[in-house]
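Postdoc handover notes: sequence design on the structure in folder B. Input tokens:
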């Protein structure tokens, strides 16, 4: 499946980051990060370990508070929201954790229905069951619904983690290192699933990764995070045709065939 570009001058921005700064004591992590992400667009954020990728998405959903600057998500200034408003916003943003964060004591089906039962108490058992069936079908694992997470492969756990995130029908998906620890074939399947989710659910996504293949395959645009800010934003080819030595070194270190 080809990733179709979604970025146009008339597109609707659903994430606007403006001059975000974040430090921890003397350590400056974000040093003026700015980015616009449009509805229906996948943006892959690349950067080496410790570059601030995880800090950035935690700031995006209010898990961390920026020292300066603004994060506007779905029209709301995250830093100005009260706890109740912030929780309501988070219901519209899905977070796919690197570890998948599944409950080992629950079956696959129980894991997926858990957030729906907790947050949509008005739904009938039939409606919950239908919603679980739908997302299991979307990730291609309906036949694993009665298994325990410990019986699944790494790639299957990733898929179930994504299904559990999708059950609340988020408008924005945040993927944290979706291909970490996976073999090349399974990584390719997860990349394909991210694109399928974008098309099927019309999600807007930020994909945090250091995997160049993941960024190339899933991102309509790529944003390169270096020295606490985005040094280059554009198509994969635009970013890596750069003469910037740090970008070239990052590419060479993560060589793609």
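Designed sequence:
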């Amino acid at each position: 499946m080809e990733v179709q570009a979604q970025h146009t001058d008339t597109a609707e921005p659903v994430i606007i980051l403006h001059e975000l700064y974040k430090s921890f004591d003397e350590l400056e992590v974000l040093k003026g990060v700015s980015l616009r992400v449009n509805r229906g667009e996948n943006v892959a954020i690349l950067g080496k370990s410790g570059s601030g990728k995880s800090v950035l998405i935690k700031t995006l959903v209010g898990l961390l508070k920026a020292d300066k600057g603004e994060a506007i998500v779905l029209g709301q200034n995250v830093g100005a929201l009260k706890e109740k408003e912030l929780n309501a916003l988070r219901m519209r943003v899905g977070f796919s954790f690197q570890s998948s964060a599944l409950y080992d004591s629950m079956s696959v089906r129980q894991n997926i229905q858990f957030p729906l039962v907790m947050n949509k108490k008005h739904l009938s058992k039939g409606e919950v069951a239908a919603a679980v069936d739908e997302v299991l079908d979307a990730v291609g694992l309906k036949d694993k619904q009665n298994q325990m997470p410990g019986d699944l492969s790494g790639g299957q756990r990733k898929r179930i983690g994504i299904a559990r995130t999708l059950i609340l029908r988020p408008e924005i998906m945040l993927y944290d290192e979706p291909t970490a620890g996976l073999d090349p074939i399974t990584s390719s399947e997860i990349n394909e699933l991210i694109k399928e989710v974008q098309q099927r659910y019309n999600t807007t996504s930020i994909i945090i990764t250091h995997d160049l293949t993941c960024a190339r395959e899933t991102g309509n645009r790529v944003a390169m995070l270096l020295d606490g800010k985005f040094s280059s934003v554009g198509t994969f080819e635009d970013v890596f045709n750069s003469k910037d030595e740090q970008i070239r070194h990052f590419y060479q270190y993560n060589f793609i065939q």
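Context for whoever picks this up: Residues 1-8 have pLDDT under 50 and may be disordered. Don't rerun without checking with the PI first.
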